[in-house]
Specification:
It is a single chain. By secondary structure, the protein is of the alpha+beta class. The chain has a single domain, classed as Shew3726-like (Double Stranded RNA Binding Domain, 2-Layer Sandwich). Helix content is 38%, strand content 24%. It contains 4 helices and 4 strands. It has a 4-stranded mixed β-sheet. The termini are far apart. The mean pLDDT is 93.
């Protein structure tokens, strides 16, 4: 399985305080989110604003995608169908 992560640009999810992104698995869209805490851990600093979170995502996108693809492959999918990258995943 090889996901294609360049399908759509990431967006800040205000309601969940995370960055949401999509990958394509063939013709199927797969939704992902990475939490503020995970991004802060990767940056080794606070990521309080939308701009800081988006910058952290862009800087660490390759690693985030690798973790997200592994979790998707292991069927670690939330009840809403989203694969969530959390702080424990990046530590």
């Amino acid at each position: 399985m090889s996901l294609q992560f360049d399908a759509t640009p990431p967006i800040y999810d205000f309601g969940r305080n995370s960055v949401a992104f999509v990958a394509m698995n063939g013709r199927r869209a797969v939704r992902f989110r990475v939490t503020r805490h995970a991004l802060a851990s990767m940056m080794k600093s606070k990521t309080n604003s939308e701009a800081e979170m988006m910058a952290a995502y862009k800087f660490h996108a390759a690693r985030i995608h690798q973790i997200a693809e592994r979790k998707y492959g292991q069927h670690q999918i939330d009840t809403d169908g989203t694969v969530l990258v959390i702080q424990r995943d990046v530590a």
